[in-house]
Design brief:
301 residues; alpha/beta; binds guanosine-5'-diphosphate; binds magnesium ion
Length: 301
């Protein structure tokens, strides 16, 4: 199962471990110079300000003689990273009974529709029934794209005309979900409108429509972030969570990038648990996020 994660993080690992290997295999002493070099390696892997925070902790532990060898630094680093990535409930919230409604948001191109295809496969494999709602009515291509996935994955889809009210689509979808007694309703949304304010208003409207039909819906609001955009993703997370109470992050596009360290920086700056990560363009390319295996895949232990 973690094979994909391992492969997906190959480039990040290469970058990080080539730097770390040089440091840790050189038979070096643990001293201030070593710690400085470590900071540089971490910084170059897109951990941003988090690299500085980690180094501060390493320095403190070093001064207190809690770590005395470079091997201990490595273990300390692993533990620190896993801790930073933990916290919050990483499992998907489910409705106590009836359909679980998952609203999927994010800017254009972040990977929402692809993530919905991946989530569909993930839930189907658990024996759950899935219904899709084509809530990105803004672009004709968006509805088509989701329809293709629905056909391929053999799940029903509720859609409206291009340009129709996405809240109306959400309404129809939640009614259909109740009537068909599906387990999971995944609601796709637009990522770009004329203004950011319009986008946020639309998302709020969709949210309200969902909760009118099912009191505690949406049970999950997943924000899809392109992990390779680093600080930009952090800003998006802050913006979206101000309006629509995001309950989980999906970090997409971790394959083919050396910027996997950004996950740590994003998680460190945004107090929302990472629930899934995307490591490719196919429905199979999704991993349920777990801190320890992620750190292992990052540091090649
Ligand atoms: N390599 C890679 N590409 C991805 C991933 N997720 C999405 N994409 C690609 O990113 C592009 C935009 O994805 P899409 O789901 O349409 O984004 P949306 O506008 O947010 O719905 C598409 O070409 C996807 O195939 C991922 O995890 N890895
Ligand atoms: Mg889309």
């Amino acid at each position: 199962m973690f094979k994909k994660l391992w492969k997906g993080l190959a480039k990040t690992r290469e970058k990080l471990t080539s730097g770390l290997k040089g440091l840790f295999s050189g038979g070096r002493q643990l001293d201030d110079d070593f710690i400085e070099d470590l900071e540089e390696v971490l910084y170059s892997s897109d951990m941003g300000a988090t690299a500085v925070k980690i180094i501060e902790r390493v320095q403190k532990a070093y001064k207190k003689r809690e770590i005395e060898s470079t091997e201990q630094v490595f273990e300390f680093l692993k533990k620190d990273l896993a801790e930073r990535l933990s916290g919050g409930d990483t499992s998907l919230r489910r409705a106590a009974s009836g359909p679980t409604v998952v609203l999927v948001a994010g800017v254009n191109g972040s990977g929402k529709t692809t993530s919905i295809a991946k989530l569909t496969k993930h839930f189907k494999e658990q024996g759950l029934s899935v219904l899709l709602a084509a809530g990105d009515t803004f672009r004709a291509a968006a509805v088509e794209q989701l329809t293709i996935w629905a056909d391929r994955l053999d799940v029903p889809i509720v859609k409206g005309e291009t340009g129709s009210d996405p809240a109306a689509v959400a309404y129809d979808a939640v009614e259909a979900a109740l009537a068909r007694q599906v387990d999971i309703l995944l609601v796709d949304t637009a990522g770009r409108l004329h203004t950011q304010k319009n986008l946020m208003t639309e998302l709020e409207k969709i949210r309200n429509v969902l909760s009118k039909k099912i009191a505690d819906a949406p049970h999950e609001v997943l924000l899809v972030l392109d992990a390779t955009t680093g600080q930009n993703a952090v800003q998006q997370a802050k913006l979206f969570s101000e309006t629509i109470q995001v309950t989980g992050l999906v970090l997409s596009k971790l394959d083919g990038t050396a910027k996997g360290g950004a996950v740590i920086s994003i998680r460190d700056q945004v107090d929302i648990p990472v629930k899934f990560i995307g490591v490719g363009e196919q429905p199979d390319d999704l991993e349920v996020f777990e801190p320890a295996p992620f750190v292992d895949a990052l540091l090649e232990s």
